[in-house]
Amino acid sequence: MLAQWQALYRDPGITADFTGLKIPAKKRGFDRLIVVPQGIKIQQAYDSCARLFPCWKYTDASLDEIGTVNDRDPSKGSYAIWIRERVEADEEWKNKSADQLKERGILGITLLERLLYEMKFFKETGRHLDVKNVTLCVGSRYRDGHVLSVNFSELGGKVDVDWYHPGFAYGNLRTREVVS
């Protein structure tokens, strides 16, 4: 699996050295490994996606300036997480706001991790994630506390990066739970 991730990062010229990487213990039902190389930036991942397929983000600013609060940080070293292997974000967490998930101690995917999953999934299948729902990236916050999100807009034909208020809860707004 690590070789696949290294090959994925080679294409856009991202250095990925996973020597000494500790992969967390796998939890039942969490079958997709996401490997994040040290030093990768959110905007770099977005730009890599945009070279593969149309993308839109709600701001002209760099996503590195926007998603400033993240539960996991690749500047401190490479890391890996497990998530459920699904096209749509977790059904288990529909109608739960980022605030409610935090209260329950649920770890959620970051914006960077979600973009990397999109890139890998697209290269494997030629398809997109979250075509009916939105991944609420509860592991990432905008500097004012809003929560970043990603989905594929069939209407627009592109992957959208947007944000939601941390108290919003809707049936199509869900996180992807993480094992780290």
Concise synopsis of the structure shown:
The chain is of the alpha/beta class and 180 residues long. It is 26% helix and 22% strand.
Keywords:
globular; 5 helices; alpha/beta
Structure overview:
With 180 residues, this protein is an alpha/beta fold. It is 26% helix and 22% strand. The chain is built from five helices and eight strands, in the order αβαβαββααββββ. It has helices at 2-10, 42-52, 63-66, 98-104, 111-125; strands spanning 32-36, 55-57, 69-70, 79-83, 134-141, 147-153, 158-164, 173-174. Strands 2, 3, 5, 6, 7 and 8 form a six-stranded mixed sheet that branches. The protein has a two-stranded antiparallel sheet with strand order 1-4. Strand 5 (134-141) and strand 6 form a beta hairpin. Helix 2 (42-52) packs parallel to helix 5. It is globular.
Order of helices and strands: HEHEHEEHHEEEE
The number of E-state strands comes to: 8
**Biggest sheet record:** 6 strands, mixed
Give the terminus-to-terminus CA distance: 17 Å
Tally of helical segments: 5
Structural class: alpha/beta
Parts with pLDDT < 50 across at least 5 consecutive residues: none
Compute the CA-based radius of gyration: 15 Å
Helix content: 25-40%
Strand content: 15-25%
State the shape.
globular
Quaternary structure classification: single chain
Mean pLDDT comes to 95
